[in-house]
């Protein structure tokens, strides 16, 4: 079933997001965080796929109505983001989900792609209401998560050929998190490129890696998102 655009409170104003609810009418909550293109159809389809797996998924519109297909414009939109304001939008989205009658989990999961992957980890370090964090090749030069504050387990999904978020950077993040005593799983997909999950981009989409990463993500959220008491 298709989702719908909703509004939620964020930083004293209304922010929009795309909400997908499973056919059962209830399930654990997951925040789906966009790539640098904005809240495009691909991200809405990812939210719909979570709903098909039994989750209540909300993809907040962090660009507030703007989307692009141009890499140059996407880079400008990403770099123009006010990270503190974006964190408040994510906090509002988390609060909205946890208070939604369809959500059965006591905490939410966060998952994001590229820019959104960095924000998934960032949101998890800022919000103890995040119970599981998934990062698909996450990177943003202005997003600096305070890793010592991370309470949720993290699943990181990266690509061997990625020159933006390199395998070396992924292993360094893993090392730092383990040093801090955090729960972390990192997988680096052989022969995969950055954005391997995006099936709207045939030049980088890798079906085998995408399907395995999706399976791991669903299992991870099912394992870690507990029912409300």
UniProtKB/TrEMBL annotation:
Signal peptide: none annotated. Coiled coil: none annotated. Gene3D superfamilies: alpha/beta hydrolase. Keywords: Hydrolase. Residues 16-224 form the Dienelactone hydrolase domain. SUPFAM superfamilies: alpha/beta-Hydrolases. InterPro entries: AB_hydrolase_fold, Dienelactn_hydro, Dienelactone_hydrolase-like. GO terms for molecular function: carboxymethylenebutenolidase activity. The keyword Translocase does not apply. Its EC number is 3.1.1.45. It comes from the Bacteria. This is Dienelactone hydrolase-like enzyme. It comes from Pyrinomonas methylaliphatogenes. The lineage of its organism: Bacteria, Pseudomonadati, Acidobacteriota, Blastocatellia, Blastocatellales.
